């Protein structure tokens, strides 16, 4: 008889809990799911479940993250790429993004609980004020990432973040409507509508009133020892409640790495990872060559970058450094830190 190591046994227990949780959430949905039933399905004790997951919410998020790599996203091959040059239009990109997004919506024959799992929905999961605030910041970051992608399209134009936010508003609305009235609405019409949004002139200026009052970054010449190699440019560490500040850095720097940290990795950290990884995966299908300016978002292992620059790991963290030739040449912290480091 082969004796399992403690790590192997823990991995087996975790896998059993996740498999049982998938069945429970598919059958009952998040709100009505019971940890006791999950333990019973897995033939484990309630304590064994809680030894691996701190709460039902963290378990639900772990299920969504565990299911993500195994559920294909529509359009396995990119619809088009940077190499298409002038033919790479903003309206076509917006429509392609919408097609990929809408493919995950529930169908008329899906159960309500199964549909929410299929759509990786967190509706009703974060109904407390801290969670709702973080969801708002995540959505702002998603709007920035999609906006930057659309700005790299032709015809060349100005800022397209407001366009991206409008597209996300339509798509999230379709998400919620599909949960309450599955089968309503034609996804092809919705995707075309997202493309037509690109023709609407939106007031999209970039002039935050607080930027002139941000203290300048502190010049320095410090050694740089990151947990993994990143390119020269600006590294900004943002807490889950400050993710929307990423744009201040991106608008002022040529190359930006965003490290998203939180004091609650099991829940808020998992939520950030779920949403940001999902958005980036969809964008990579449409923009295989990347977007300009290049932006990298780190969620897993972000704490290591916070420690590397001496920043606290918390939901309100905002700190940044400028890296040049492998050394830290400027530091900033507090509101507007990314912009200060970028303009140092």
From TrEMBL:
Keywords: DNA-binding, Transcription, Transcription regulation. InterPro entries: Homeodomain-like_sf, HTH-type_TetR-like_transc_reg, HTH_TetR. It comes from the Bacteria. Residues 34-53 bind DNA. The keyword Transcription regulation applies. Gene3D superfamilies: Tetracycline Repressor, domain 2. Residues 11-71 form the HTH tetR-type domain. The keyword Cytoplasm does not apply. SUPFAM superfamilies: Homeodomain-like. This is Helix-turn-helix transcriptional regulator. The lineage of its organism: Bacteria, Bacillati, Actinomycetota, Actinomycetes, Micromonosporales.
